[in-house]
Design brief:
The protein has two domains: about 230 residues, P-loop containing nucleotide triphosphate hydrolases (Rossmann fold, 3-Layer(aba) Sandwich), CATH 3.40.50; about 120 residues, OB fold (Dihydrolipoamide Acetyltransferase, E2P). Helix 2 crosses helix 3, helix 2 packs parallel to helix 4 and helix 3 crosses helix 4. The longest helix is centred in the middle third of the chain and has 18 residues. The chain contains eight helices and 20 strands. The protein binds adenosine-5'-diphosphate.
Length: about 350
């Protein structure tokens, strides 16, 4: 992966009093699959439109391939946008759809034929060029839309919720497919999505956005295992939190005092002091449940009452009441052994290691 190909420097874009993009600075590297992840209204589409040139920043600068984009119109930018609903021409064949832009620009027939063939090969649609969009599956239509972008040889491909129109199963297949295509063509892909699983599966790096700001930028692993704030932890799918005060700090470890619970041992990344308020965020699948009260090699063991037990086929999901105001979720692989399942109202011990979870400074 190379140096920065896209840079946003302190970009602001407001609609009336709403700051859709709010002092955003980002660097996206040559050849990476970069996802912009955030809830609806967080400014993702506006950011994509600023890159494509459909919007201009009120403040700040957008640079692509080392050029300031301020005065560059959309059609002269080295980017191509793939729309969410593909915007394919229904009456044209696959070939016609992919060739359309080149034909409009007066590219020679000979060159069109070879470039369309190359683009269709990149998305593995060779042999389907005479079909019309209605004769294609949803995933194939998506790949035609992508080929239509790739045929222009852009430096950066912009994708707006690329898998949004597909059903769940196809979505998962296409995540792998899309990442594969990006790796084969070696181009920079910038993808907008509100779907955290999708962003984590496909991306080299992810920016988590809220209210026009990037709250955290990092690899999927960093964002998943080391969320920088409660918002990111929540958005990435953590449902278990404990809030308390720091009792002691020893190197990378600390102990946390939480009302009505045993003292908790956790690992921290600095920025905390004795007496300070922190939250611990823990993933449902990192918890171990037992009927025994001992630590059994774990750093923490906390009693809880089973408030709900949900059978989910490959896993059991438990809702666990730790105290009056703390309700956690645990996911435990279902190995088919009925004796190992826990019943409603049963007392269990929730065990986990200090290395699991993230300490968030309140
Ligand atoms: P997202 O793509 O994350 O859903 P958007 O970039 O579409 O977010 O929107 C960010 C904010 O800017 C929202 O509050 C939205 O209502 C507002 N917004 C976006 N486009 C316009 C527009 N053309 N006019 C007025 N407000 C807009």
């Amino acid at each position: 992966m190379g140096g920065p190909i896209v840079e946003l420097r302190d970009v602001v874009k407001a609609y009336g009093v709403t700051r859709a993009v709010d002092h955003l600075s980002l660097e996206i590297r040559q050849g990476e699959f970069f996802s912009i992840l955030g809830p609806s209204g967080s400014g993702k589409t506006t950011l994509l439109r600023l890159l494509a040139g459909f919007e201009r920043p009120d403040r700040g600068e957008v640079w692509i391939e080392g050029r300031l984009m301020q005065e560059v119109p959309p059609n002269l930018r080295p980017v191509n946008l793939v729309f969410q609903h593909y915007a394919l021409f229904p009456h044209l064949t696959v070939f016609g759809n992919v060739a359309f832009g080149l034909e409009m620009r007066g590219v020679s027939r000979h060159e069109i034929v070879s470039r369309v063939a190359a683009a269709l090969e990149m998305v593995r649609l060779t042999g389907k060029q005479e079909r019309t969009p209605t004769q294609l599956s949803g995933g194939e239509q998506q790949r035609v839309a992508l080929a239509r972008a790739l045929v222009n040889r852009p430096a950066v491909v912009l994708l707006d919720e690329p898998l949004g129109a597909l059903d769940q199963q196809l979505r998962q297949e296409m995540q792998v497919e899309l990442k594969g295509i990006q790796e084969r063509v070696g181009l920079t892909f910038i993808c907008v999505t509100h779907h955290q699983g999708e962003a984590l599966t496909m991306s080299d790096r992810v920016a988590v956005m809220d209210q026009g700001r990037a709250l955290q930028v990092g690899s999927p692993r960093e964002v998943y295992d080391r969320p920088a704030s409660t918002f990111v932890a929540n958005f990435i799918g953590i449902s278990n939190f404990l809030t308390g005060s720091v009792d002691s700090v020893h190197g990378a470890r600390c102990t946390i005092r939480v009302p009505n619970l045993p003292e908790i041992v956790a690992r921290h990344r600095g920025g905390i002091g004795e007496g300070g308020r922190v939250s611990l965020a823990l993933r449902p699948e990192r918890l171990h449940l037992s009927r025994e009260a001992d630590l059994n090699g774990f750093d923490n063991a906390v009693p809880a009452r089973v408030a709900k037990a949900i059978y989910g086929g490959h896993e059991m999901q438990y809702q666990l009441r730790l105290s009056d105001d703390v309700l956690w979720t645990a996911r435990v692989p279902n190995d088919g052994t009925v004796e190992r399942r826990f019943a409603l109202d049963e007392t269990v011990f929730v065990r986990w290691n200090a290395d699991e979870g993230a300490i968030l400074v309140e």
